[in-house]
Structure formats: C-alpha cells, structure tokens
From TrEMBL:
It comes from the Eukaryota. Residues 221-259, 306-441, 470-504 form a coiled coil. This is Interactor of constitutive active ROPs 2, chloroplastic. The keyword Metal-binding does not apply. Residues 1-14, 21-37 have a biased composition (Polar residues). Keywords: Coiled coil. Belongs to the ICR family. Residues 1-78 are annotated as: Disordered. Residues 53-78 have a biased composition (Basic and acidic residues). InterPro entries: ICR. The keyword Coiled coil applies.
Length: 572
C-alpha cells in the first residue's frame, strides 16, 4: 500500500514548485498525528510477535485516560472535517477555473468566428473596390470618348458660327464705319449750325468782354509800368546803399590791412630786437663763462644781471605774442564783416533781379493775350460775313436720310446676331449639363471609393481589436491552466495526506476501542521501546520521499516521541 503513495508524492513534487501554505502545515500536523495513530495500532502486534514473555494482566482503567481518549478522537474528527472542507473548496475552485476555461474557450471561438466573418467582409470590400476601380476606369474612358465626340461637334459648330460671325462682323464693321462717318458729318454740321447761331450771340458778348479786357489790360500795364519804375528806383537806391556799404567795407579793409602791415612791421622789429637780445645774451653767457673760468667774478653779480636780462627778454616775448594775437583777431573780424556785407548786397541784388524778371514775364503774357483776342475777333468777323451756311444745311439733310437707312440695316444685323448668340448659349448649356453629369458620376464613384476605404479601415481596426482580445484571452487561458495545474498538484498531495490521515485515524480508533474493551496487553518495558523505534522507522519511511525539508522532519520526530510516550502511559 505504501509504494503507490510514494510514486504519487514524487510526481506531485516534480510537477509543482515547493511553497509554504496553511494547507501544507495542517497536512503536516495531521500526518504526525496519523503516524502516532499507526504507531499505536501496530505497537501491540509487534510486541506480541517479538516479546518472549507473555504477561496477561488487566490494565486498571483511570478516569483521566478515559477522558483523554475521546477528546483526541474528537480532535481527529474535527481535523478530518476541516480537511474535507478544504477539499470541497479546492474542488469548487477547480470547477470555477474549469468554467472560466470553458468560457474563455467559447469567447476565443466566438472571436475566431468574428475574425472569419470580418476577413470575409474585408475580402468582399476589396472585391468591391476592384470592381469600382474597374467601373471607374470604364466610366472615365467612356466620358473621355464622349468628351472627344462633343469637342469635335462643338468645334465644327463653333467654326461654322465663327465664320458666320466673321462675315456678319465684317458687314457690321463696314456699316458701323459708314454710320460713324455719317454721324460725325451730322455732328459737324449740327455743331457748325449751333456754332453759327451761338457765335452771333457770343461774339457780341465776347466783343464787350474783350473791350473790358483791353481796358483792364491797359490799366494793368500802366500799374505794372508804375511798379517797374518804383522797383527800378528802389533798385537804384539799393545799389547806391550797397555801393556806399561796399566803399565803407573797402575802407575798413584798407585800414585793417594797414594796421596788419604796421603790426607785421612791429612784429619784425621785435623779432630783430629779440634776435639781437639773444645774441647779446649768448655773448654775455660766453663772457660769464670765461670770467668764471678766470675766476674774476666771485660775488656773482653778473649772473644776477644775466637772469634779469632773461626775465626782461621773456616779458618782451610775451608782450609781443599778445600784440600779435590781438592783431590777428582784429584782422579776422574785419574780414568777417566785409564778407557779411558782400553776402547781404548779393542777396538784395538777386531778389531785385528776380522781381524784375517776374514783371517782364507778366508784361509779355499780357501782350500775347491781347494778340490772341485780336485774332479771335478777326475770325469771328470773317465767319459772320461767309455765305456757305445754306449749302451746309442741304448736306445735313442728305446725311440724315442716309443715317436712317443705315440704322434700319443695323437693326436687322443686330437681330441676326441675337439669334446666333441664343443658339450658341443653348449649345453651351447642353455641353455644360453633359459635363456636370459626367462629373457627378465621377464624384459618386470617388465617394464610393472613399466609403469602401473607410469600411476597410474599420474592418482592419476591428481585426486588430479582435487579435488583441485573442492575445489577452490566450494569456488568461495560460494563467488559468497554470493555476489548474497547481491546484491539481495540491489536490494530489491532499489526497495522499488524507488517505494517510484516514488510515492513522482508523488505527488510533482501533487501539482506543481495544483499550476500552479491556484487552490484555502483552508487553515488556524494553520491548515497547524497541517496538516504538521500529514503528517510527516504518512511519517515517513513506514520508522520506515527500518531505525534504529539515523542519518537517523535526516536527514528525517530535510528534512520534509524543505518541510513544502516550502509548507508554496507556499501557501502564
């Protein structure tokens, strides 16, 4: 019975990773208790087989031992119930995971069906797009052929109409030229009549105005002559004043020049004196040097005289420089005054000359106006005395008759032109309608293309969403499968442990029942220890493969020791 349990435990440990859980801790406790129960069960059998001495005696029943045994049974039953509840919960979790797995599979199948339908729709849209593109190409070719035919017909009709229009336009142009010539002649005649009638009225007015203008021009000429005389007198006065100012300026310039010459002469004389004084100083310095070398001047009086002479020379130089600066400033001021006087005189002369020129121009303009008025008077008098007005009236009447005839012809031509324009407009409207219809068909095809493209985009988006959902569902399925595998491994472990605990509980119950019935225990104090050790070895052997951790082994050994002590107490 132990060999299959070992194989199951090995498979469970190899499939599922090790982890600590409350279920495993509980199972370890229960395994220890079941081991103790199995020890209690197998203990008396081994003692009867191995012990050489058989002692038959009745164990005295104490109320404490009788109370402890049912309490342990209750604990074992409680633990078994708890384990059964854990089993139920695990089964429920497995069932829920299986339902989730089934739901995920159903969703995956639904998504696959949707994908298939969407791919079919996508293929249908692509086929429709191809058909639309082919139909568009056919429509474009047909429209192009229709346009070529229409263009040919319209070109032929337009050429015919252009020829007609060219003929009509030439006729119109010639008629219009004749009409314009007649109109010009009529206008000339009318203007001549109007001029002849108005000239008689206006010539008298013009004569009166000319007489007034001549009187006004005479007065203006007299006033201008008076102004000229006044301006000439003012100019002469200004010239006299400017001449006086120029003479004064020249006199001042001469005086300044003479002062400058005098200052230059004084400057030259001073320079000569300075040169002489410098030569004297140099001579005196040489004399002093010689005297110093000879040692005649011991008191130093000539040195003092030399210093005095040097100071006098410096003072003379300073005074000369001051006089020179003053003379240069005086000369510059005189030159500036002379230049300002010249500028003012030139400005006055220029203003007077411009005024004279303006007055001369006004006089010449008035003279030309007088000559023009006299020529106009002569022309008017000649027109009044001309006898060609009656012949002009006859020509005007003939021209009016010709003009009426040409106007009737022009009306007929304009009516024909209107009819031709109406025909052209009608044909243009028909061509525009056909073009609009073709454009509408093209726009419809383009809109259908755009709708198909939009549908394709939506289908592609839906397919992307479905692929994402499928990936998520596959991930969830993988997670659920892993959880299921973990749960199955734990369930296998729990089943093995429950079987072991059940066997241990049954053994303990059999021991307790045998104790309660008052069976004889054939044992020896030394044989109990040996039996305990053998049972502990047998109980530990099936769990050596399942439990690899050192703390679990320690717990199991402690529990086995407690069970051995309990058995010793029960035997006593």
């Amino acid at each position: 019975m132990q060999t299959p349990k070992k194989s199951v435990s090995k498979n469970g440990t190899s499939d599922v990773p090790k982890r600590t859980s409350p279920v495993s801790s509980r199972s370890s406790r229960l395994t220890t208790e079941s081991d103790s129960a199995t020890l209690a069960c197998h203990g008396p059998k081994t003692s009867t087989n191995r012990s050489p001495r058989v002692v038959e005696r009745k164990s005295p029943r104490s109320p404490a031992s009788e109370r402890k045994r049912p309490s342990k049974l209750n604990e074992l039953e409680h633990q078994i119930n708890h384990l059964q509840e854990d089993l139920k919960k695990a089964k429920e979790q497995i069932a829920s995971s299986e339902t989730q797995k089934k739901q995920a599979q159903l969703q995956a199948e639904e998504f696959k069906e949707k994908l298939v339908t969407l791919t079919g729709k996508h293929e249908e849209t692509e086929l429709r797009l191809k058909e639309l593109s082919e139909s568009e190409d056919v429509c474009v070719e047909e429209f192009w052929m229709i346009e070529q035919e229409c263009d040919k017909t319209w070109k032929s009709e337009l050429e015919a109409l252009r020829k007609k229009q060219a003929d009509d336009s030439t006729a119109l142009f010639s008629a219009m030229n004749e009409i314009q010539n007649l109109k010009e002649q009529l206008e000339i005649a009318k203007s001549f009549e109007i001029a002849s009638t108005k000239n008689t009225e206006t010539e008298n007015i013009e004569l009166l105005s000319l007489e007034q203008d001549t009187a006004d021009t005479g007065t203006i000429i007299e006033s201008l002559r008076n102004k000229l005389k006044g301006s000439e007198e003012d100019h002469q006065n200004l010239m006299a004043d400017t001449q006086v100012q120029l003479e004064n300026a020249n006199a001042t310039i001469d005086t300044l020049r003479s002062d400058g010459l005098n200052s230059l002469e004084s400057y030259n004389s001073l320079m000569a004196e300075l040169a002489e004084s410098r030569t004297q100083v140099s001579l005196l310095g040489e004399i002093v040097r010689k005297l110093k070398e000879d040692g005649r001047f011991e008191n130093g009086d000539p040195c003092v005289e030399i210093e005095q002479l040097k100071s006098a020379l410096e003072a003379a130089e300073l005074s000369y420089e001051e006089t020179e600066i003053k003379s240069t400033v005086h000369i510059q001021t005189a030159y500036e005054v002379a230049e300002s006087i010249k500028v003012e005189s030139n400005h006055r002369e220029s203003t007077l000359e411009t005024a004279l020129q303006e007055t001369k121009h006004e006089i010449s303009d008035l003279k030309t106006k007088l000559i023009q008025k006299e020529s106009e008077l002569k022309a008017i008098m000649y027109d009044l005395n001309n006898p060609e007005t009656e012949s002009a009236k006859i020509l005007i009447a003939e021209l009016q008759k010709k003009l009426t005839d040409k106007e009737t012809e022009l009306g007929d031509v304009m009516e024909k032109k209107k009819i031709l324009k109406q025909e052209m407009e009608r044909k243009e409207a028909e061509s525009i309608k056909s073009i609009e219809a073709a454009n509408a068909e093209i726009e419809m095809a383009r809109s259908a293309e755009q709708e198909a493209l939009v549908r394709v985009g939506l289908v592609s988006e839906e397919s992307d969403k479905i692929s994402r959902k499928e990936s998520k569902i596959t991930e969830q399925l993988e997670v659920a499968q892993k959880a299921n595998s973990d749960m199955e491994a734990e369930l296998k472990k729990l089943r093995v442990q429950t079987e072991q605990w059940r066997k241990a509980a049954e053994a303990a119950a059999s021991i307790l029942t045998s104790g309660n019935n008052g069976g004889r225990l054939m044992e020896r104090s030394g044989s109990l220890d040996s039996d305990y050790n053998s049972i502990a070895g047998k109980l530990m052997s099936p769990f050596s493969d399942d439990v690899d951790d050192s703390p679990l082994k320690k717990k199991n050994s402690n529990m086995l020791r407690k069970i051995g002590g309990f058995l010793k107490k029960g035997s006593k």
